[in-house]
Design brief:
With 108 residues, this protein is of the alpha/beta class. It contains four helices and five strands; from the N terminus they run βββααβαβα. The two termini are 25 Å apart.
């Protein structure tokens, strides 16, 4: 019998796409990081894409880069996640994107 592989957890990183080095996805260990731009960065379609992914059960956790997203976008995402029982983490201040990536690497 083949050994069981841990299920991959999908984390949505919202905001700060200008800091992305390449692509919209990274795999680190048994976690996949999917980047979503703020409404300012990519328009309202990006928020709709995130909300649809949440409602379809494609995302296990959401990390918000608070300096990059507006209050309305943050509230919409937080309310949806609360309703669906999805964990939301907030990262603020200088170096927030790098801090989120470091936590992902260290915990993966």
């Amino acid at each position: 019998m083949a050994p069981l592989r841990p299920e991959r957890r999908v984390i949505a990183l919202v905001g700060g796409l200008a800091q992305a080095q390449h692509g919209d996805r990274d795999a680190i260990g048994h976690r996949e990081l999917r980047r979503f731009g703020s409404v300012k960065e990519r328009g309202g379609g990006e928020l709709r894409r995130l909300l649809l992914s949440l409602k379809r059960g494609c995302i296990d956790e959401v990390w918000l880069l608070t300096c990059w997203i507006g209050h309305n976008q943050s509230q919409t995402i937080t309310d949806t996640c609360k309703r669906l029982g999805i964990l939301v983490r907030r990262f603020g201040g200088p170096g927030q994107a790098e801090r989120a990536k470091r936590i992902l690497r260290e915990s993966g």
